[in-house]
């Protein structure tokens, strides 16, 4: 089975699957290989694995307290791999069901909670972190979009401006963002990452999630993620009477249904 993993990796790359997805799929497949070897004492072959093995592996993941979302991601990786290695006509995963995931309603931050969070960030006196959390709350940038930004993506116009995301979308910002962002980019080269990590290179999405978690804990808040901060921005727009289709365009959502869900949350928390 390990011999086909290299071919599978090339297959994913040729189909323009993202680096993170490829890395995750290969990691999940290697976990299956390790479990199979530990359980049966020999390496698995593509044709030697049967649905009972997959069910046993799934049970193993549940026994070691893997989250349902994680297990379902693993099952998707296995399904993708076996379709490639065996062919779509052999449904090895047919009898393996995904786990049900309880729907969690996103937290809606009050204005007071937003102020508590910003106070914790400013108390750190970390200019980079101040800019990042301000952008999350005031522009609706998605956490995945931060790591690709360069200084040259920021444009200033008077006391406002915009950030170009993926060379396609322009994310406008107001004077509050202008104030912290102008100081942050001063003296930096256009080719530099807008938010470098301590180890060099760009700050990753995971790094930003850890950063947000740190400050929300210091502010005494719970259940706050970068997505919750984006929701707070969407709520502010909807409260100001911005039409849902306009909100969707601002935050880069292709599906207006997502914003409609936010409207329901806004109404429930008003």
Q: How would you describe this protein?
A:
- It is a single chain.
- With 270 residues, the protein is mainly α.
- It has 2 domains: 84 residues, Tyrosine recombinase, N-terminal domain (DNA polymerase, domain 1), CATH 1.10.150.130; 158 residues, hpI Integrase, Chain A (Orthogonal Bundle), CATH 1.10.443.
- A hairpin with a 2-residue loop joins β1 and β2.
- α5 runs antiparallel to α6, α6 runs antiparallel to α8 and α6 crosses α10.
- The longest helix has 22 residues.
Summarize the structure.
It contains twelve helices and three strands, in the order H-H-H-H-H-H-H-E-E-E-H-H-H-H-H.
Termini gap: 55 Å
- Kindly name the structural category: mainly alpha
**Helix-residue proportion:** 55-70%
Number of DSSP E strands:
3
Annotation field: number of helices:
12
Tally of structural domains? 2
Query: What's the overall geometry?
Result: elongated
CATH class of the largest domain: Mainly Alpha
Mean pLDDT over all positions: 86
User: What would you give as the CATH superfamily of the largest domain?
Assistant: Intergrase catalytic core
The low-pLDDT segments are none
Set down the secondary structure blueprint.
Elements: H1 2-14, H2 19-40, H3 51-63, H4 68-85, H5 111-124, H6 127-139, H7 143-146, E1 154-157, E2 160-165, E3 169-173, H8 175-185, H9 205-218, H10 226-239, H11 244-251, H12 256-268
Antiparallel strand pairs: 1-2, 2-3
Helix pairs in contact: 1-2, 2-4, 5-6, 6-8, 6-10, 10-12, 11-12
